[in-house]
Amino acid sequence: MKHLWFAAATTLFISNVAFANTRICVSVQQKSWYKPVAPVAAPPPAPAPPAPRVIEPAPAPPPGPPNPRDNDAPFGGPAPMAGWPPPGPPLPPEPIRRMRPPANPHEIDPTQHLRRLLEYEVTHEPGFVAVDDRCEQRLTVELYQLESGWTVFARYSGTEREEKVDHAELDEFAELAQRIAFALLRNKSITHTITRENVLRADSEQNLRTINGTGHLLFGMGTAIRVGNLPTAQGRSQPVATEGRFLTPVSITIGYRRKLRAWGLDAFGRLNLGTENTGANNNDLGGHVDYSKSGLAGLHFLHYTDAPGINSFYFGGGAAFEIAQFEVIRPVSARTSGTTRDSLIGGGLNIDLLVGYEFLRASSVHFYGQLELDAPAYLMNTESDAGGINTWMPGLTAQIGVIF
User: Fold this and answer.
1) DSSP secondary structure code for residue 269 in this structure
2) pLDDT by residue (tens digit) across 229-282?
3) Which 8-state DSSP code applies to residue 374?
4) Which part of the chain has CATH 2.40.160.20?
């Protein structure tokens, strides 16, 4: 009795699992998007040629009396034969015409082939089964013929999702069926179903168009403000002390700006020249440090707030690599004729944020103003026998320039 109850429970469980599967009818249709060719009208029949003129022969005269000499045999020869001349050789038999066999006797119907592969993939997807009747949902595929292969459109009624593959060949139908079934049944984009085992030619053979932007040279001038803790002279005979100082070098920029609609890219080089210098006679003990110059090479990404406008604000960010040179005064005891200072070299990567304004953009030559915040991702740490620095030096650069 227990075995009967177990068999009944097992049968009921299996039947419930079977009924839980979504029944899907799969159909594949061959369609065409070529314009139908209008039938060519038959030309009108040509007029019948005129009948030839018939000339009737003159009536024959009545036969005369028979000549008894007509039946005589020729002199010295046999009588004439009735079957002369003899018949010629028989005509050759007409050759037997045979039908040419098809080029490929095993030609595959693409609709049947893809339909069967889709039924297989649907049935092997958990929770779904491909059937021919009592459909709960439908999966419809349309094949549009190309010169080689098909463009494929697939739609599933359960999720109301439709996917497209631009080009698929007959030998790719197995991979195509796997990706279509998974994408539609799981409500995913078909581009997100690619694996190493189901790549289609259309995934790699794509002709992508790019935006043809405009390129401009730019030249700008301005000033920068650099802030840092530097050794500073306190008097001719006093030792130096580290103090916060504002440095205001002159800034010159040359670069290339590429505009792609609302976006822009700057590749630039910049030279900063220091404008402050302390005389060596004011620091006999040495150690005072002055900013000499620096060079930068960087990339900035921009976004315009009014891309088609004649005037537009823009903002963005980027990074620049900087190498800076400082000069430190030697002590009197270490000075030589013509050499009173040592050079200190340091540098690193700056993170930049910027905002600007372009105006007269309808002209081939237009102008811009820009404010830039520079935040070094490093400490300026360098020294020599005469002295050294160890400081973080952020900066602010203001420029105005021309774009052409």
Assistant:
1) E
2) 999 999 888 999 999 999 999 999 999 999 998 999 999 999 999 999 898 889
3) E
4) 214-403
Find all residues with CB under 8 Å of 99, minimum gap 6, and list them: none
For residue 59, CA distances in Å to 55, 56, 62, 160 come to 12, 9, 9, 95
What b/e string do you get for 188-220 counting C-beta neighbours within 10 Å, with b at 16 or more? Answer: eebeebeeeebebebeeeeeeeeeeeeebebeb
Higher per-residue pLDDT: 59 or 343: 343
Q: How far apart are CA 256 and CA 72, in angstroms?
A: 126
Q: Looking at domain 21-28+109-203, does it have CATH number 3.40.50?
A: no
Q: What percent of the chain has pLDDT over 90?
A: 66
Q: Return the closest-CA partner of residue 31 out of 171, 180, 168, 150.
A: 150
Burial class (CB in 10 A: 0-12, 13-18, 19+), 395: buried
3-state secondary structure of 346: strand
pLDDT digit string, tens, across residues 89-141: 776 666 665 555 555 656 889 999 999 999 999 999 999 999 999 999 999 99
**Across residues 340-353, what is the average pLDDT?**
95
In eight-state DSSP terms, residue 263 is: E
All CATH 3.30.160 domain ranges in the chain, comma separated: 21-28+109-203
Q: Pull the structure tokens for residue 282.
A: 């004011």
Task: Give me the torsion for CA of 76, 78, 80, 81, rounded to 10°.
Answer: -160
The CATH architecture assigned to 214-403 reads: Beta Barrel (2.40)
3-state secondary structure of 351: strand
Specify the pTM. 0.59
**Alpha-carbon separation of residue 174 from 37, 106, 120, 169, 367 (angstroms):** 34, 18, 10, 10, 59
